[in-house]
Amino acid sequence: MGPRVSGASSNLVYACEQWEIDLGRRELRSRGTPVPLGSRAFEIVTVLVQAASELVTKDHLMERVWPGATVGEATIHVHISAVRKALGSGRGLLKTASGRGYRLLGSWTPLEQAGAAAPVAAPPTRATGAPPPNNFPPVVTRLVGRSAAAQIVRDLVSAYRAVTLTGPGGIGKTSLAIKAVRYLLPDFEDGGWIVELASLSDPDLVPSTVAGVLGLKLGREISAESVARIVGEKHLLLVLDNCEHLIDAVANLAETMIRLCPRTTILATSREVLRIDGETVYRVPPLDVPAPEHDAPDHILGHSAVELFVARSKSLDTGFSAGASDLASIGEICRRLDGMPLAIEFAAARAATLGVQQVAMGLGDRFALLTAGRRTALPRHRTLRATLDWSHELLPDAERQLLRRLALFPAGFTIDAAAAVMTDTALDGAAVTDGIANLVAKSLVALDKADSGARWRLLDTIRAYALEKLGDSGEVRQVARLQAEFYLALFAPFGTEGRLQAAIDDLGRYRVEVDNLRAALNWALSPGGDAALGVALAAVAADFWIAASLMPEACEWAGKALAQIGDAAGTHREMILRCNFGMTLIYSRGMVDPARDALARGLTLARALADFDYQQRTTLGLWLFAARSSALEDALAVSRPLETVVGPDDRQSRAVADWLIGIPYVYFAEHIEATTRLQRAIDRYPIESRDRDTVRLTSDLLASASGHVAVSLLSLGRVDAATRAVTRAIDDARGGNQGNVLCIALAFAAGFIFLSLGELDQAERHGEELIVHAEKEKLQPFHAAGLCVRGSVAARRGAPDTGVDLLRRGLADIRAASYLLFYPIFLIELAAALGALGRIDEGLAEIDTALRFAAETGHRWLVPETLRVQGQLLALRDPDDPAVEDCLHRGAQVAREQDALFWELRLTVSLARLRVTQRRHDEARQILAPVHGRFTEGFETTDFRAATALLDALTP
Predict the structure, then answer these.
(1) Domain end residue (candidates: 379, 397, 432)
(2) DSSP-assigned beta bridge partners for residue 35
(3) Could you report the per-residue pLDDT of 130-163, keeping only the tens digit for each?
(4) How many independent structural domains does the chain possess?
(5) pLDDT in tens, 413-423
(6) What pTM was computed for the model?
(7) Residue 65: which of 18, 52, 78, 53 has the closest Cα?
(8) What is the DSSP string of 784-837?
(9) How many CB atoms lie under 10 A from the CB of residue 924?
């Protein structure tokens, strides 16, 4: 029996302005009209009004309303919210003292005096003896993963008098309702009654069906009002189950009973809300599913959808056991079924007979696969298709058409997108908005809460069903065309030079559409699509893929569009696609001939069309191709014209020219010219162009220039400045949020700077990050560089065998990609690792390859270090070989000619040590001291400390 104010006068009424609190009838009234309020929520009002505006603490409130029970903060908040909702415009009467309690403001006058208020009695736990009468079905199986939801429903039912559980078919509304209300039965002295309406087809029979379940004797008049008048003051809980197909009749009956039966509470389950006065709605959530990126067994098992799958499979097959690989598949099955309990039960039943892997593979045709429902289930719950057929058949024709067309949006949709695919129908924009609202109300469309904007989506299972209906209707081609045209217009800013920056600034708006863009492109560029529309869309979206750091995908769509270029040959669209294809192919696969050919064609078109934007873009691409795969002289020749071709932004044009001309000078070992050019590019570059240029040029000038200038600064002996520059390059790259830009900066830091300085911890940290990002972005050349860094670190830390294996793998991938920027430094590392294993001849062969590469391509900056390692290898074979000293002398001479103080120091240390072994200590000191004395920074580096220690040992 529910809590009561015992001993109070049955006609005691408190009044304040328009409000009355009638303790006898247990009613809250506004201007004489009862306001629906749940039983425990009314008890809160009773306690507060009897406190005469005094503060009632939370503890006191719990003691009065829930004596002997433990309730959480959430339960109190639900009931307080119900009171505020009931007060409506008078909600200000209920005040919260944060963290302390509540008070009811106003002058509440008792219209009839009564005795002192007694405490609220009767605990909310089950009373001893027989429970109140009810017809709830027995619990056959445990309801998995619904404890939190059941508590919410219990709180709502005790706080409100009309509660609707809504959600799509198969979400578990009925099971949840029964689980929740069983606990509340003692609060209703006249019992709890469930009225199953699924089999009822005539809405006129709703009142008599309810009367029959309640055992009411009706006269000739059978109506909602007649039922309500007989129920009258009875204190009961009425569960109206499966209301959606009789929604108007059920809503009328429920609203009538709430108005005329002050002690009746109604809990409805429906795919569509009742929309009655005083109703509160709880949208039943799906079960929790594991995130796709987490595949640890404990993580997967910690989600209720997986728990249900495993429990149901075991109930059907006691020998069922899920291993690690099965768990990953079960997690994927649960995700693809949207955590929908009924569908998961179907899948588990199939897994018990077919196996988990077979079910996972068969979900493409889920409606044929998932048919093993329980024999005792309602007919519409015996197959997944039947569950959705029930909802679909209840829709009017216009909403059916809208639903099936919305299925073309795998990433969800906006109102504008939905209206776009309905432009050939009789529905205008307002009607489409209303239609979406109706589908949301019927639990077939859901608001996408993951997105901050106004966006909706279909659950995957509902979408698969609607796609079938779309195919059956013969509308696919027309709707797909409308969808592609919508995205052509939406992504147009990315294809318009003057609007590109605005599109990049609003990138989040476009990112959420990526799966929809894929769907539109896939249709347009597939057989039966519209190739011309696909080419146009691919060209418009070319820069989007770069901005979204999806370079391999940019390459894929550009390639597909070029294969169907048709009438767009020779136009701006072909120019855009050629450039996009060539640039992205370089980063995803390396310096392959199709990339060069595409860029050359793009440059020809850009010149013919007098398009400076694409002249600059394609020139950079051809420069990259030459600089990374052939000869630096070719790269310089490609970039020289940029000094005379000035674009609309003179500062940007000149900075790009200095950048592309300065980089070859780094590898020519003309370090002073390189630092001058590159620093001028950094200083001159207009920062406001950066985001736009990072997309246009697929590279970040600031990060790239800083990384390259670090190489020259290191060679010049300005070690601290080099470290600062490469750190700045990484910081700049992180700020740009472009995977390829960050990979370049990390490769410079790990391979060029920190390995050279012997700072292995730093090299390893940046190298491992490089591997992670390269794998994520699918950038093969940078992944290869990361493997080489890993191998170099392993070899230097005393595991040369591991180092050799990793270096050989990485170098093979670098050669396959013809992306040779990193090639010479890792050849030297491989040679040193082979020497550590005693494989001298193999190491010397790699040195010969490195020297030949330098001669053929102009990469002279590492020649001093190459000669030093060659000397070390020769010394390992024969310390007295004159060739050892010759290598070291030649290396030191080259370093002096290059002003490469850092490499000169390393060579003179090796020469000085050779002199020590020859007992020529004075000569050793005379060789080393002048070079050591020219350093003005970098005193804490490994090489400088070694030189200092050697000089100290040589000092008399």
Answers:
(1) 379
(2) 28
(3) 778 999 988 767 788 899 999 999 999 999 999 9
(4) 3
(5) 999 999 999 99
(6) 0.75
(7) 78
(8) HHHHHHHHHHHHHTT-HHHHHHHHHHHHHHHHHHT-GGGHHHHHHHHHHHHHHT
(9) 24
